[in-house]
Amino acid sequence: MTHTSPHAAHDHGAHPVHGPEHDADGQAEILDLDAEVLAEHIASITAWLPVRADPRHIVDLGCGTGAGTLALLKRFPGAEVTAVDTSAGHLERLQHKAEAAGLADRVRTVQADLDGAWPELGTPELVWASASLHHLADPDRTLHQVHDTLAPDGLFAVVELAGFPRFLPEDAPADRPGLEERCHAALDRHHAEHMPHRGADWGPKLTAAGFTVEGERLITVNLGPPHTEAVGRYALSSLTRLRGSVARALTAEDLTALDRLLDTGSPHSILRRDDLTVRTERSVWAARRT
């Protein structure tokens, strides 16, 4: 999933649903690692959804490489999922995963730009949008489209990131004090300029679109050491993309320290550390078409 603006390439947790292909392999890697590292948290969200009956048809808006799609297929074994994304490469990757899991007959992929003409998606009982709405130029329009697409009494699940994940220990003596926080502050300023809907309270927006918000939940992720090898690769890929957004805003000293962490051949490489954590939050809204 990519976006027409440069910021999308550095908002790795998000699943944009419009824009040209851009660094698709790098973003796909991060989406795959995000799915692997946070699999239990994604499953906990799908388990929490207040569905009144198991859905038969689900739409995943901004599906990326399939984290949500595969979790929903597992949670609802009688359902089929229509997976929507702008990236043909990501959809192909999702299809391969579904085939490997023996689920290909339950997945239909649709390549579409949701800021353009709305695709034909049938009448799903559940629509899932994880880290995708804030990338849209007019998310309010999309909320109304989802409302009109859902079956009566259907559920809309919105999952949004509270921020870019943190990985480094806050008091590590080997690092420049506050390096990661300064990177995040620079990224927040970048997003405030280019991504005004990031961090929005989607509850009022959902209500304005005709939904009844039935539940809201904050998922706090804090995975401490010892960590898996995937966490190291997740940190490396994420901080590499973070660097691309914030390099110009960092001091020379901070940039040198960050590059030392990202140098896989260095003894200071982030891949060699045993003190990494994954700290982030995700907000979830469950809204019903009434």
Mean pLDDT score:
86
Distance between the termini: 31 Å
If you compute it from the alpha carbons, what radius of gyration comes out, rounded to the nearest whole angstrom?
19 Å
Q: Which parts are unreliable, with pLDDT below 50 for 5 consecutive residues or more?
A: 1-22
Work out the strand percent: 15-25%
Helix tally? 9
Tell me the helix content: 25-40%
- Give the overall silhouette: globular
Going across the major beta sheet, what is the strand order?
3-2-1-4-5-7-6
Notes on the structure:
With 290 residues, the protein is α/β, with parallel strands linked by helices. It is 38% helix and 18% strand. The chain contains nine helices and seven strands. It has helices at 24-37, 39-48, 67-75, 88-100, 139-149, 179-194, 202-208, 229-246, 252-262; strands at residues 57-61, 80-85, 107-111, 126-130, 155-161, 211-223, 278-289. The chain has a seven-stranded mixed sheet, with helices on both faces. Helix 8 (229-246) packs antiparallel against helix 9. 42% of the residues are buried. Residues 1-22 have low confidence and may be disordered.
